[in-house]
Amino acid sequence: MARERVQSALDAMGMGDRLRVLPVSTRTAREAAAALGCEVAQIAKSLVFKLALSGKPVLVVASGANRVDVAKLAALVGEPVEKATAGFVRQATGFAIGGVPPFALEKPMETVLDEALFELPSLWAAAGGPHSVFGVTPAELETMTGGRRAAIGMPGV
User: Fold this and answer.
1) Which of 27, 77, 133, 147 has the greatest count of CB atoms below 10 A from its CB?
2) What is the spatial distance between Cα 44 and Cα 113, in angstroms, rounded to a whole number?
């Protein structure tokens, strides 16, 4: 199962006690924040985009309170980006939309971290399914993903 893959990766990093399975949906940033009793901004949502020319995936981990500025993202990665289909996301990550974690992905891919995440002391991210999340600090997120920080978020969910 997808959640077990995330748990194994967390165990390997010495973070095995971080995963939580909740009785309600955490599929969206708003649902996750409500279930956890935290701010929407503290949800580190994993969004996959498709590079329009090369067809490669790029993972953006953004604050749940932000939308991704696709023009800034395109400038950062050097080619236009487009929204990925559910099938593309599953093929690239091994996870379904609503449960994509920021690491333990099926294939390595470029990862960009929304600079807004680093303004918060703690975050929650998807852990493989629509009811599972794990707690992480921004610094831990940066280490586990190898992602680069960039100001690509803009207010609005």
Assistant:
1) 133
2) 9
Residues 23-33: pLDDT tens digits? Answer: 999 999 999 99
Rounded distance between C-alpha atoms, residue 120 and residue 109, angstroms: 25
Is it the case that residue 19 has pLDDT exceeding 80?
yes
User: What's the rounded Cα separation, in Å, for the pair 122 and 120?
Assistant: 6
Q: Average pLDDT of the chain?
A: 95
- Which tokens go with 80? 């236009």
What percent of the chain clears pLDDT 70, i.e. is strictly above it? 99
Asked if 7 contacts 126 with a C-beta cutoff of 8 angstroms, the reply is: no
What three-state secondary structure class fits 35?
helix
Q: Which residues pair with 19 in a beta bridge?
A: 134
* 3-state DSSP assignment of residue 124: strand
The residue type at 69: D
Q: Is residue 123 a contact partner of residue 138, using CB atoms and an 8 Å limit?
A: yes
Cα–Cα distance measured from residue 93 to residue 107, given in angstroms and rounded to the nearest whole number:
6
